[in-house]
Each structure stands twice: as structure tokens, then as C-alpha cells.
Amino acid sequence: MALRTFGIIGLSSFGHYLALELARAGHDVVVVDNNEEKVEAIKDFVAKAVIADASDRKTLAELGLKQCDAVIVSLGTSIDVSILVTLYLKEMGIRHIMVKAITPDQGKIVELIGANEVVYPERDMALRVANKLRFPNVIEQMTVGENLQLVEIMVPDSFVGKTLSQLDLRKQYHVQVVLLRSSGTEKTTLLPTGDRALQKGEILVVLGETKPIERFQREWQ
Question: Residue 88: is it exposed, middle or buried by C-beta count within 10 angstroms (0-12/13-18/19+)?
Fold first, then answer.
């Protein structure tokens, strides 16, 4: 995988951990925050850490962010500052601008200003935790489209020994098995065939619209 360069403006908890994870994966990460303590805490883990006020247009232009593949704006609850920074980044010609927002209204505003993508970390984490509590067998769940969910779920005991053709999940639940993997190993089967028998301890990765996915999860907990 080709390594990329990312800029992160604002070391909120989201920005901090995002920077660490991207850097851990080998990408070059440039972080910017006006809080010296936050910058000092992360400077040894990223390619570049700058103490600066990103809401100042001239300062922002001097940070060299035009070389980044994407810039993420993570300024906590400071939506007014996020709007200004997003506008400046757009005017600078940044290729991809991602903005952290708290509410849908905030998201709509920064999209109008020029954000290519808006993320809602608090909302998304709450949904993940809620789904984990509702559906204990679910390992991971993510939204991949406006109404599409991708779910990792342990193979239910009643599925063990049966083939995908026998289960016919597409007909019964309107969901598609896109991947099958063995728990604790790297062994995976992409788009498994109908004659594939399921084994105890395996993990199904299932794709479907939200309502069919929820029905599938409810019935096989």
C-alpha cells in the first residue's frame, strides 16, 4: 500500500488518536494545534507537529498542507473555527478535506463551505456501542453507503455444518455473504461459493440494507 501524507488540524481526542493510528500505519502525519501541551505530547510520534493558530489564514497557508493527500479538521466543538479553517483549506486547493462535526446541521454547513467528507465520531461510536449491546455476537459493524451495512458476526451454532446454499441467506434475509474468515487466523474466503460448509468459530461478513441486516442480527443472536 502506498504511503500517504495527512494533515490533522486540532488535537481533540479524535484528532489525537487518529494521528497516532495513521502514523502507526506508516503514513506521514502533520498535526497542528494552538495548545503547546497537546503538540508536545504527540510530536515524537508524527512526522511534524506545529504549534499554530490554524484559524489565521496566513499561518495556515504557511504550513505546507497543500502537499497532503487529505486534511482532517478536528476542532472539537468550535464549529465557527471549523468553518473558517474549512473555507481557507478550500481556497488553498487542498485535495480532500474531512471535517469532524457534532451535529448534522454543523455537517451541512461545512459541506456547503467546501468539506468533501464529514465525520461524526461521537454519534458513530454511540451507534457501535449500542449495536454491540443489542447484538452481542456482532464483532464489527460499519456503514458503507446511505442505507448499506457491513457486519461481522460469529457463525451461529445452528449454521455449523450447513452450506451457504442450504442457508440461502440472500433469499431468507436479503443479505449477501461477502467474506468468510477463520477466527484468530488470516485465512479468508472472498465471495464464498454456495457449496461452502460453515464451521464453528468462523466469522461471516455480511452486506445488506439496514432493515434486513437488523432482522438477520435479531434472529441469530
Answer: buried
Whole-angstrom Cα distance, residue 116 to residue 101? 13
Residue 122 burial (C-beta neighbours within 10 Å; 0-12, 13-18, 19+): middle
pLDDT in tens, 121-169: 888 888 778 877 777 777 887 777 667 888 888 898 889 999 999 999 9
- 56-83 confidence digits (pLDDT tens): 999 999 998 999 999 999 997 778 899 9
pTM metric for this prediction:
0.69
The CATH code of domain 5-119 reads 3.40.50.720
4 three-class SS: coil
Superfamily of domain 124-219: Regulator of K+ conductance, C-terminal domain (3.30.70.1450)
